[in-house]
Design brief:
heterodimer, A: about 110 residues, mainly beta, B: about 120 residues, 7-stranded mixed β-sheet, 4-stranded antiparallel β-sheet, about 55% strand
Chain lengths: ~110, ~120
């Protein structure tokens, strides 16, 4: 049960878009539509921003969107704002009542 | 508004047992899965295990031999025990609520547990 693979870092200027990938296998990302994304600011608990691949919890801006193709899920942050600078983690159901997280991506707003 | 409040010992010696408890305020244990997730300093998140209101449990396979998650429905609390800890278990431990698989919508404040001789 290996961690899902994310790029270590991503960046963009204010107003631009940034897309983060989350690569797994047929046993996790590709096998189920249970991929979530979390935003974590330094010293804080993670915050759920996307669940079931593309659904947003109440209160999460529609600048955040999710998608999936095969064994890779993606999070896109449109109209980057300074407050979007944070670490982002994906998570997937991995079958047999197990769950796996991604390696994490640090997003920098230039 | 659901709030999770967690507590437990923050400094352990190798081979001791980690023990954390999480109280759920503003909601019931019923209908959800309650998990523990940890994050070593400067590293990523790791799912440890979960329990539901009917005390059915699931654990990460690599930790299963050392982990016990239990719930006290009368107190609306759930707990984590991790035995035989080593330095590799040093992490911030979070209690969380899960509904949809892999979607954890409420998090405790986190407890830093340090294992050091």
């Amino acid at each position: 049960q290996s961690a899902l693979t994310q790029p270590p870092s991503a960046s963009g200027s204010p107003g631009q878009s940034v897309t983060i990938s989350c690569t797994g296998t047929s046993s996790d990302v590709a096998g189920y539509n249970y991929v979530s994304w979390y935003q974590q600011h330094p010293g804080k608990a993670p915050k759920l921003i996307i669940y079931e691949v593309s659904k947003r919890p109440s209160g999460v801006p529609d600048r955040f969107s999710g998608s999936k193709s095969g064994n890779t899920a993606s999070l896109t942050v449109s109209g980057l704002q300074a407050e979007d600078e944070a670490d982002y983690y994906c998570s997937s159901y991995a079958g047999s009542n197990n769950y796996v997280f991604g390696t994490g991506t640090k997003v920098t707003v230039l | 508004q659901v709030q999770l409040q967690q507590w437990g010992a923050g400094l352990l010696k190798p081979s001791e047992t980690l023990s954390l408890t999480c109280a759920v305020h503003g909601g019931s244990l019923s209908g959800y899965y309650w998990s523990w997730i940890r994050q070593p300093p400067g590293k990523g998140l790791e799912w440890i295990g979960e329990i539901n209101h009917s005390v059915s449990t699931n654990y990460k396979p690599s930790l299963k031999s050392r982990v016990t998650i239990s719930a006290d429905t009368s107190k609306n609390q759930f707990s984590l025990k991790l035995s035989s800890v080593t330095a590799a278990d040093t992490a911030v431990y979070y209690c969380v609520r899960g509904g949809v698989p892999a979607a954890y919508d409420y998090w405790g404040q986190g407890t830093l547990v340090t294992v050091s001789s």
